[in-house]
From TrEMBL:
Belongs to the enoyl-CoA hydratase/isomerase family. This is Enoyl-CoA hydratase. It comes from Bacillus sonorensis L12. Its EC number is 4.2.1.17. Gene3D superfamilies: 2-enoyl-CoA Hydratase, Chain A, domain 1, Lyase 2-enoyl-coa Hydratase, Chain A, domain 2. GO terms for molecular function: enoyl-CoA hydratase activity. NCBIfam families: PRK07659.1. Keywords: Lyase.
Length: 257
């Protein structure tokens, strides 16, 4: 694999987003590789899966060049299907899943992190559900995972404002579960060691109950996100948002379709 690396030590299956030159922004090839890695993780005997990013951040979200292909309807639909598959695979994983976030976790990158059971954030991390800045809505189950953690009212505020949160602000909202200061691997490793001393089989049984109760709702959310996102990608607001991003200026949204 080119953009994803993985390692299985029998106890922890580790997946690393490995496109540091692009702040681990997710393009179609990286998403397909991530899906492949998740299949391997699901087949592994390990009871814990860790997801982290290489380089200066966890993930800056969807790749801007992939966004520029949004007029290709077939490509857009295929990419969203892959994103939805990834969200469902992590949600359904019969393991305790952990995201270790440093640097940026934005847009689709934040949806990916929130799909995990535990989200750890380095103190200098910045988190944002910032699809709104380019005239889009969250995908990857972003609506579902945000609401589950902070409630509908706070979720709408985070989605509509696109506000950038510090790790401490995210912790207060319960968007993340712990904040650490210092070296990512050391702190993530300490968290994993604590989990490995826990009755993981019992924890996973509890997770299965919640999965059974909520899987249908996540599937419905993903379908709704797909329909709405494909529609949003054809709007003038989205086109203006992309142009403004490339030109490094504030977008001038006009609410026209």
């Amino acid at each position: 694999m080119e953009f994803i690396t993985w390692k299985d030590n029998g106890e922890v299956f580790e997946i690393v987003l490995n496109r540091p030159e692009a702040y681990n922004s997710l393009n179609e090839h990286m998403l397909e590789e991530l899906k492949e890695a998740l299949i391997l993780a699901g087949e592994s005997e390990a009871k814990i899966m860790l997801v982290k990013g290489r380089g200066k951040g966890f993930s800056a979200g969807g790749d801007i060049n992939m966004m520029l292909s949004s007029t290709d309807e077939n490509l857009s639909e295929q990419v969203i299907d892959t994103i939805s598959d990834i969200a469902m695979m992590i949600f359904s994983m019969q393991k305790i899943t952990v995201a270790a976030v440093h640097g940026a976790a934005a847009g689709l990158g934040l949806s990916l992190a929130l799909s995990c059971d535990h989200v750890l954030a380095e103190k200098e991390a910045k988190l944002a559900m910032n699809f709104i800045g380019i005239g889009l809505i969250p995908d990857g189950g972003g609506h579902f995972f945000l609401e589950r953690r902070v409630g509908e009212t706070a979720a709408k505020d985070l989605i509509w404002s696109g506000k950038k949160l510090t790790a401490d602000e995210a912790l207060k909202l319960r968007l993340v579960d712990a904040v650490f200061h210092g070296e990512l691997d050391r702190h993530a490793g300490a968290h994993l060691e604590k989990l490995l001393q826990s009755p993981l089989s019992a924890m996973i049984e509890t997770k299965k109950i919640y999965q059974t109760l909520n899987a249908g709702r996540l599937q419905k959310t993903l379908k709704l996100e797909k329909t709405a996102q494909l529609r949003m990608r054809l709007t003038k607001d989205h086109q203006e948002g992309i142009r403004a991003f490339l030109e490094k200026r504030k977008p001038r949204f006009n609410q026209q379709v």
